[in-house]
Amino acid sequence: MITSRLVIVGMIAFGATRCLSNGQQVASNGTVSVDVEFQNYINVYRRLSLEDFSGSSDYRSNREDELVKIGYTESSSEEIVVGKSAKERALLAALPAWGSISNGTLNTKSDIEKIWTKLAEEHVVPVWLGSAWIDGTRLACNGFNCTNQLQTLSMLNYFAFCKRIADAAEGDALGHEANQRTICRMKLYYAGFETKYDRTFGIWRITGTNAPAAKSPWDG
After folding, report:
1. How does residue 38 score in pLDDT terms, banded at 50, 70 and 90?
2. What pLDDT digit, counting tens, does each position of 44-56 carry?
3. Greatest CA separation found in the chain?
4. Can you tell me whether residue 207 is helix, strand or coil?
5. Which of 4, 150, 158, 202 could bridge to 120 as Cys pair (CB 3.0-4.6 Å)?
6. Residue 195 sits in the same domain as residue 124
7. Cβ 92 vs Cβ 86: under 8 Å
8. Whether residue 15 is found in the same domain as residue 68
9. pLDDT at position 190, please?
10. Cα dihedral 80/81/82/86 (nearest 10)
11. Strand partners of residue 26
12. What is the pLDDT of residue 120?
């Protein structure tokens, strides 16, 4: 009986107030009010979606400088430290070269996405350096303390990877990956972090906080 009452009360409340797409609420008596928080939420979503669609959030970093910052060095034998744990190294080693991924079959891509999902669950952001996959999580964090947001950052880059596969094949016809990227970026935004897509490494990186003129701690 209690559950039924809650459902009825909820239906009455829903009928008494209508929410418009612009964040305005219309009460049963015709009074219009503005839900500022909801409106701000929609504005952030629109801004981030537009940035992603237009490429205005893209930039290119200096490959050599960035690798030095995170302690990676490419020796003459092209041997690179790829991961922190045996599990990470095994997952990264299971990924084929990027050229094979972009030209692979749909079944191959599906298998690769499964590996990438496991890497995201391990909070790993894979980065292809031309000869090997490495754990690029420190690159993605970019010197910021974002330990409690690693899952979101990893998933953001998982959906970025899905986009790269889609672009090389049939395209993101339904906009699923684009929507998921925006949601991940919104989570990071509300956690205090700004993100941009680094075309040098093919990953989304934290580039600042919501504070004015914020920059990476690595930049001094």
Report:
1. confident
2. 999 999 998 899 9
3. 75
4. strand
5. 158
6. yes
7. no
8. no
9. 92
10. 140
11. 18, 32
12. 87
Same domain membership, residue 146 and residue 57: yes
Contacts of 5 (CB under 8 A, 6+ apart): none
Asked if residue 39 belongs to a domain, the reply is: no
If asked whether residues 86 and 146 sit together in one domain, one would say: yes
Q: Which two tokens mark 168? A: 């090389």
Reading the block at residue 27, the tokens are: 């009460």
CA distance linking residue 154 with residue 137, whole number of Å: 8
pLDDT at 131: 83
The token pair at 76 is 């003459």
The DSSP string of 118-163 is HHHHTT--EEE-SS-EEE-HHHHHTT---GGGHHHHHHHHHHHHHH
Is 90 within 8 Å of 115 (Cβ atoms)?
A: no
What residue has token string 């009825």? 8
41: pLDDT strictly greater than 80: yes
User: Does residue 105 share a domain with residue 148?
Assistant: yes
Residues 101 and 1 in one domain: no
Nearest to 189 by CA among 159, 136, 157, 146: 146
Q: Is residue 165 part of a domain?
A: yes
The total domain count for the chain is 2
- The number of helices, as runs of H, and strands, as runs of E, in the chain is 9, 8
* Pair (30, 131) in one structural domain: no
Structural domain for 25, as ranges? 1-34
Structure tokens at 98: 């990027």
Return the structure tokens found at 141.
């964090």
Q: Are 101 and 112 in contact (CB under 8 A)?
A: yes
Reduced to 3 states, what is the DSSP secondary structure of residue 46?
helix
Question: Does 75 share its domain with 180?
Answer: yes
